[in-house]
Design goal:
Layout (H helix, E strand, L loop, with lengths): L6 H16 L5 E6 L6 H14 L4 E6 L8 H18 L3 E5 L1 H11 L7 E7 L12 E6 L3 H12 L3 E7 L2 H16 L3 E7 L2 H14 L2 E4 L10 H10 L4 E4 L10 E5 L1 H16 L10 E2 L3 E6 H7 L5 H6 L1 E3 L3
Length: 322
């Protein structure tokens, strides 16, 4: 027996079906940033994430703000708040950026969760957090250390260096890998992590007399740091090559070997999109970033008279600081 519907009823059912399909709620993506709005690195990750996921999910963001607030009790509180937000929204996928979110949120609360997690911006390795889990994958952040040390030795004609950064989880982790590479390749690298700008200045000035080159880590947690004042301080107190691997530190450095936050965000967004479309997260391998760019701070180079290899200068992007 074939059931025949009245044309008007059939049309009404088609309209109902179409409206049901097209009004279905979007899946939910939660993004947990370890840091804060206005921090250049995480802003770059966020922008790329939003660009990739725009229109594909409802995007909910939570900023832990642990770059400016480093106390363990504060970080644990923010991690608890992030967990509660995830529990509330029951997202289809969670993206995290940088180490604190990986350590204090994923590892602490979601190791055996059914929710897919995609991390990015985790420095050097994720093995210390036990990744990958069956529900976790991501992109680690690896800086071009070999290229940096090669140029430092070539230009400075020496192997005695100073790494100076802020006393944060990121720089503590970073400097460990810098020191490891230095020892393996017969470089001398002293490491100093400071809390105040006065400490930073003291060690920077000392290095002008005792070191061949200086590597700058983060500055965001250094108390009393004022960009304009520090640009002038460095301009008038530098005679040794200064290098960095962070985009926002180029105004204070002569040379930068810079990885791109946008690469981290784009990869994480595309991985999340794959999960939303049904691709098993267990089949997405943990990867490292692949690209980096070299930068030259023309003002500092000119002021110090340091000569860089012509080929390096030609292929590098230039920062002209007024």
């Amino acid at each position: 027996m074939i059931l025949k519907l009245h044309p008007l009823l059939s049309a009404a059912m088609m309209i109902f079906f179409a409206s049901t399909v097209f009004s279905a709620p979007l899946p939910v993506c939660v993004y947990i940033s370890s840091y804060h709005k206005g921090y250049e690195w995480s802003d770059g990750i966020e922008a790329s994430l939003r660009e990739v996921l725009n229109g594909h999910c409802t995007f909910i963001q939570f900023n832990m703000d642990t770059k400016r607030n480093r106390e363990e009790s504060y970080i644990l509180q923010k991690a608890q708040e992030a967990k509660e937000l995830i529990d509330q929204y029951k997202p289809d996928v969670v993206i995290t950026s940088d180490d604190n979110a990986a350590k204090y949120v994923i590892q602490k609360y979601f190791k055996k969760s059914s929710i897919p997690f995609i991390f990015c911006g985790v420095n050097w390795t994720a093995k210390e957090y036990g990744f990958p889990y069956k529900n976790v994958t991501g992109m680690i952040e690896v800086t071009p250390v070999a290229a940096l040390f090669e140029l430092a030795a070539l230009v400075s004609k020496g192997k005695r260096g100073l790494f100076i950064g802020d006393d944060t989880l990121t720089d503590r982790k970073d400097v460990g890998y810098f020191v490891k590479y230095a020892r393996k390749n017969n470089f001398e690298l002293e490491k100093i992590l400071v809390k105040t700008v006065d400490e930073w200045k003291e060690h920077y000035l000392r290095a002008q007399k005792t070191k061949d080159y200086i590597i700058l880590g983060h500055n965001s947690a250094i108390e009393g740091w004022k960009d304009d004042e520090m640009k002038e301080f460095i301009l008038h107190n530098s005679s040794k090559l200064v290098l960095t691997t962070y985009q926002w530190m180029i105004p204070f450095s002569m040379v930068g070997f810079i990885i791109q936050a946008e690469e981290q965000g784009k990869w994480a967004g595309e991985a999340a999109l794959g999960v939303l479309q049904g691709f098993p997260i267990k089949n997405i391998a943990i990867v490292a970033n692949r690209s980096w760019t070299s930068w030259v701070n023309s003002r500092l180079i000119k002021a110090t008279g340091i000569i860089l290899p012509e080929e390096f200068v030609e292929k590098s992007q230039k920062l002209v600081v007024d």
